[in-house]
Amino acid sequence: GTREQRWEMRVHDLGTRRIVHLIDRTGSYTAERMRVDFVANASHELRTPLASLLGYIETLQDEAGEDPAIRGRFLKIMNDEARRMQRLIEDLISLSRIEADKYRKPEQTVDLNTLVEEVRLELIGGGRPRAADLEFDLSAVPPVLGDRVQLSQLLHNIIGNAMKYGRDATPVRFQLAQRDDGMVQLSVADEGEGIPPEHIPRLTERFYRVDSGRSRAMGGTGLGLAIVKHVVERHRGRLDIASIVGKGTTVTILLPGLTGAQPPEAVS
Ligand code: ADP
Predict the structure, then answer these.
(1) DSSP code, position 203
(2) For a substitution probing ligand 1, which of 215, 218, 241, 251 has the most ligand atoms within 8 Å of its CB?
């Protein structure tokens, strides 16, 4: 959105002189506005599946509920709606945890080779559609100072997106490598329909979606990349999203490796 300039004026009357103090409140206004929008969006996202659930419960309570075929069909839909609410609440909790940890340095020594392998097995084991198209190109990388749970979430979210928005029967390629400057590079490339450039800067905003219908149909919460951004920031890393419409998207994350990026202190 547009960033409105907002000033607060304070006048100090000193008898013979008057001091006019202008304070730039633009930043805090934006933060407050974002918080209000966030609560409104989150409530709306929860209200929709909840209204649907209540509707089905009501229908099942009258005669329709006695037909086993209808019951089965409705219970399946109700299960999907409840799961959608559960995913949303879990993502909201994750996001608030990561935000609460913002100023706390992550301090686990995380071996990304092992973590990626765990996530790979979870993705395949979860019976996710298209899991067979996952390709992993892994090279040994130095450990990073990090938070294992949050880095696992980051991996799930970026690989999950590539699987959700990639085209059927096209591969999703994951790469893990060390760069010459000591940074560890994680990237995920898909061959989906890509993202028009004007949307790219906004993808990490909470609930921002290019195509809400598609996101919802794929079970998306609209919070995945917001979580990724916060995890990357907490780990002092970098996030880059590159996309070509019609060709696909590549998400790249750089994290400081424990060796190389942080040279040992000089010995005197
Ligand atoms: P969602 O739960 O909607 O997937 P995300 O925060 O993970 O939420 O992503 C935000 C939006 O960015 C998605 O709704 C989708 O429009 C777009 N997006 C994310 N990853 C990709 C991708 N690999 N290809 C195309 N679009 C993507």
Answers:
(1) T
(2) 215
- How far, in Å, is the centroid of ligand 1 from the Cα of 16? 60
- The verdict on the CB of residue 190 being under 6 Å from ligand 1 is yes
Which residues, 6 or more positions from 60, have their beta carbon under 8 angstroms from its beta carbon?
71, 74
d(CA 78, CA 214): 20
Helix, coil or strand: residue 253:
strand
112 contacts 151 by C-beta, under 8 angstroms: yes
Q: What are phi and psi of 263, to 5 degrees?
A: -65, 145
Q: Which residues of the chain are modeled with pLDDT < 70?
A: 1-4, 28-29, 127-132, 260-268
User: If you count them, how many residues does the chain have?
Assistant: 268
Q: What is the pLDDT of residue 3?
A: 59
Most ligand 1 atoms within 8 A of CB, residue of 83, 89, 155, 161 to mutate:
161
| ipTM entry | 0.99
CA distance 124 to 120: 6
Q: Is the CB–ligand 1 distance for residue 74 below 6 Å? A: no
